[in-house]
Amino acid sequence: MGWNKVAIIGVGLIKFGELFEKSWEIMVEEAYLNAINSVDKGFNPKDIEAAWLGDCRPGAHGSQTLAGVSLVGNIGLAGIPCTHIENGCPTGSDTFRNGCLGVASGVYDVVLVVGAEKMRDKSTAELLSLASQGHPIIQRGETAMTMFAPQAIRHMHEYGTTKEQMAMVAVKNHKNGVYDPYSHYRYEITIEDVYKSPMVCSPLNLLDCCPQTDGAAAAILCRADMAEKYTDKTVYVAGFGMGTDVFYVHEKEDFTEFVASVRAAKQAYSMAGIGPGDIDVAEVHDCFTITEIINYEDLGFCSKGQGGKLIEKGETYIGGRIPVNPSGGLISKGHPLGATGIAQISELFWQLREEVRASGGFGDPAINEKRQVEIKKGYALQHNVGGRGISNSVVTILTNKKG
Amino acid sequence: MGWNKVAIIGVGLIKFGELFEKSWEIMVEEAYLNAINSVDKGFNPKDIEAAWLGDCRPGAHGSQTLAGVSLVGNIGLAGIPCTHIENGCPTGSDTFRNGCLGVASGVYDVVLVVGAEKMRDKSTAELLSLASQGHPIIQRGETAMTMFAPQAIRHMHEYGTTKEQMAMVAVKNHKNGVYDPYSHYRYEITIEDVYKSPMVCSPLNLLDCCPQTDGAAAAILCRADMAEKYTDKTVYVAGFGMGTDVFYVHEKEDFTEFVASVRAAKQAYSMAGIGPGDIDVAEVHDCFTITEIINYEDLGFCSKGQGGKLIEKGETYIGGRIPVNPSGGLISKGHPLGATGIAQISELFWQLREEVRASGGFGDPAINEKRQVEIKKGYALQHNVGGRGISNSVVTILTNKKG
To answer: B6-123+209-399 sits in which CATH class?
Structure first.
């Protein structure tokens, strides 16, 4: 059976988008309030004994560093410990992972994890300069695009993956985003739209890429054996894994998989005591369309090289064999780095509780429910990959089964 | 009895200073190698299952964010999880705390914690701009100096603390630094020297302040019940605490104590099942001389308002009732933010094992041993305080007793 030492008792997020009108402080406060108000049997904030804050780009809101007090001092919880984590694209999910370790350690019974990111208050050029790392010559010109585009080219060459299959990922995720009230974009697109959108870095057009999005998300965790105090519909953390990889391009052996993801998934499946066939629904890191296709393979949803065919056969649509990114994913919902992982977990919390209709009280229930997947085996998988040289990945497995 | 779920089996650091000749990568590698080579019965790096990296100012080495792979990819450990933590001045000690939670959770048996900071590669003005936070008008002009100097003035006013008592802290710590081969500064100073040094922010002269220092430190932790595999002289983590406080000046109620420290100490003493009278030696956060005096009170080494008299009576000198900062402290050894907490823990590891003479194989044993304190009750205390508005503190208690 799974690890199941930690329970999720509440989640909350804010509508993702270009939130020029909201300060960072307002964003985290709203996500936090939505999380505590979501706890079924009520929740006293005084129960929170420790917190973790995920925020990836300290420079994005005014060249600031962000000690954990920036969170707790801001939401009326000054006093308790708060750790600030930055860990590239998996910042949110690693923040969640550290919160789980805190509870499982026996030191804290109830903890808060919050992820947030201001991506639009500064120019993309400034944001990119913050992400540059490593040897100044070896890493010259390395951006997210120039790291992921060669993966697409190699995957096309090795396995016959097509531009059309990649575009299908964007079409699917935009369609799902229409049904998610928190999504940055809420409109459908066609394969033609992807082809006609500006070329950013061949073979990736603009609509193959996720947008720059502001957002925040929060979750409240407690010891599994305490969860009934707060809810009768507990979601448990069945397992998690985090993997890393070498980060310089010349050190990589394979351009068709993300080694960090494979490692993270292996740990998470092992801890949860299940395999890919047990997953009812997944929220995975589709920063680019090719990323989602490679994720299918790295996470074991299909065999190596078959990712393109998996989307082509419609198996990852809502209603398919293994629905992926019902929330709209990074491509439609958006990717506020620190928030993304916790927002994915929030979506899976609702999916496993079959509460997507409500979506935390946001949106039109009749529209929201169109993204509810069928829960059969009771397991859901969250995944992020990124960081310096695509060398960092977190996988989390949630379940509605007690153990 | 104490918590004692986690053992420290090895520590390592590099000589602190202005390390223009060493890249960040070289600094962390040297500290890591010193730590693994320090394990008594030998150590296979493959035993490390997870890592935490503390580094406070991502902008300090080229406007970079620092995902955890920057550490593990650099030291040949690509594959394992690595979380990057930033948490103001307690970054190093909070990194250690998260490593402890990781081991105590039962998920990882052996973990690595590394702290590092490049403080000198960029100008102080650039570094300060990175630390600015919060409301742009309310926080205007807030620097470390302008936060700590008013504390000194108020403490002088309330309790009769004197400039001379403050200077005595600098004299003591510089004297101790002479005996620490890792210390940035290794020369004695006099009270007159402090008075004659340039006024930085009244009443703090230059020699009341810690310098800007580059450095790195590492520690290897494991489950307490596994420690005998690695060493017969285990040091255990008896307890730890982390406290936060409101961060805007106008919200503070008292300018003569650091509320975050009081909260952190209370948690740590409670977890360790001891009180201040059980501490044989302490490494505390003397970013300024007044800080050490207030720490004496906040940590319970004397009653409120008596901190100045404690140093005046010589009780915190090596050989005194409660020796504080035998390593030279931040004032003499230096304060590379991410590294400081783990370097303090390294010093206390050697103190508790009565191995200061060797100091990890560095320096002249005949000089090193002059800073060895007498170990009576077997407990040592580490402390950091700082972050936005002096609102963030970590206290760690170590012991040589099995529990």
So the answer is: alpha beta
